[in-house]
Automatic annotation (TrEMBL):
Organism whose genome encodes this protein: Streptomyces lacrimifluminis
Residues the entry annotates as binding Mn(2+) 1: D273, D350, E352
Name of this chain's protein: Probable cytosol aminopeptidase
InterPro entries: Leucine_aapep/pepB, Macro_dom-like, Peptidase_M17_C, Peptidase_M17_leu_NH2_pept, Peptidase_M17_N
Cofactor(s), names only, from the UniProt record: Mn(2+)
Pfam families xref list: Peptidase_M17, Peptidase_M17_N
Family statement drawn from the similarity comment of this UniProt entry: Belongs to the peptidase M17 family.
One MF term in the entry's GO annotations: metalloaminopeptidase activity
Gene Ontology CC: one annotated term: cytoplasm
Transmembrane segments: none
UniProt xrefs under PANTHER family: CYTOSOL AMINOPEPTIDASE, LEUCINE AMINOPEPTIDASE-RELATED
Residues of the Cytosol aminopeptidase domain: 348-355
UniProt function note: Presumably involved in the processing and regular turnover of intracellular proteins. Catalyzes the removal of unsubstituted N-terminal amino acids from various peptides.
Amino acid sequence: MTALTLSTAAAPGLRADAIVVGVAKGGKGPVVAPGAEAVDKAYDGRLADVLGTLGASGAEGEVTKLPAPAGFKAPIVVAVGLGALPEKDETFGAESLRRAAGVAARTLAGAKKAAFALPIEDAADAGAIGEGALLGAYAFDAYKEIGKDAKNGKAPLGEVALLGGKPRDAAYKAAVARATAVSEELNRARDLINTPPNDLNPEAFAAVAQAAAEEHGIKVQVLDVKALEKGGYGGILGVGIGSVAGPRLVKLTYTHEAASKHLAFVGKGITYDSGGISLKPAGHNETMKCDMSGAAAVFAAVVAAARLGLEVNVTGWLALAENMPSGSATRPGDVLRMYSGKTVEVLNTDAEGRLVLADALWAASAEKPDAIVDVATLTGAMMLALGNRTYGIMANDDAFRSAVHEAAEEVGEPAWPMPLPDHLKKGMESPTADIANMGERYGGGLVAGLFLREFVGEGITWAHLDIAGPAFNEGGPFGYTPKGGTGTAVRTLVRLAELTAVGDLG
Ligand code: BES
Ligand code: MN
Ligand code: ZN
């Protein structure tokens, strides 16, 4: 794991493999961002000119490498684009810093240590740069012998020193500690998402959660197949029973003695979604190991909340199952009796996420938390609506939906509010059961949200995050987002817990 430190060292004498500076897009060409004054001085104040000559513009995502000035201990300077120069009296936004730091860290894979001389105005900027660097440095290398040959990629950047940070200032120290805890847990969520489904079945996921919970003083309970049967969890069982690797429901309980609020996070944890008897066609299942991204996000957020010691009680529910076709699998036409007591006619076994979530939502509701947030790679329809970088937010409370949206924006996770139109409920009417697990095709993401709403306890504030689009990045890396599992929603959940802890969220 990449280490993050604050440093007061001056760039020239610093022993590192590279010095990272920021370059912004000015009206008349690239502008060197604050924080790199000593570096610019060593180039006789000509760094912007040099960068311009090399073709740099300061655009986001841009990387320009140049030899360090004479006398520098570090051999190279890496200039990363920060995008548009801020207006007068304004500073670079947190997301711009995060992304630039992420690009720099990824570029420097294979290096041992880099010094980041990016613009830091306050502790929050240091946190943003640190977070971007730690997230951008991420690589999933569990199945490759890294460094063996060029094809196998390079080890992540070993150490990031933030120049211009204040190592003895409490706010800066807290910002670095927060960035470290959140990024490490988020990267662990990415590892879980990227782990192939033959190695991460529900039992294996539950074991990982159990070990981490014990390490961080979180109470953990795992319901296995027998316990699920005894408890009447017909939704989770109905989805998971076709697989030789049976389902699990994991409950993580983080409590703080001074907490006055209680949040419940519920995650969809389909460790592989083949579609079940309603089998997905080839071309639609290669990335379906990512269907546990919601549970991974919930897991990461609860552990991060514990590591940060947030003054709020947080319960995490991981609804884990493998959706497989077999002789014991649920058939289209079967009726399941859910944990809530409602019956569901399963018309399509590929609409499985809402079934496992329904049981977990009902279980979460029984504790009467102040709010429930579920996270799920739930529908292809949400990807059609919002693309692959934005998640949809639905809720049974307008103010809460806005609060979640604001939290998402604050942490740099693109999200957008979606409605839950009542008329779409009609499509889920079943002649046989209380409700069907399918409705109208149009607005499929909203139909799924409406289904979930039926399993939220009376009077409980609830939001549903459909992260099917941004959970797994099939394209190339960008900013601090790698290829593969992204860890989307972890930072929104942590932010919600933080806001709740200080009483700023209802
Ligand atoms: N896990 C999928 C949704 C998904 C699709 C996530 C693509 C990430 C990328 C979900 O279980 C599913 O199969 N949904 C169906 C629902 C339909 C059968 C009502 C879908 O969206 O097609
Ligand atoms: Mn499915
Ligand atoms: Zn699914």
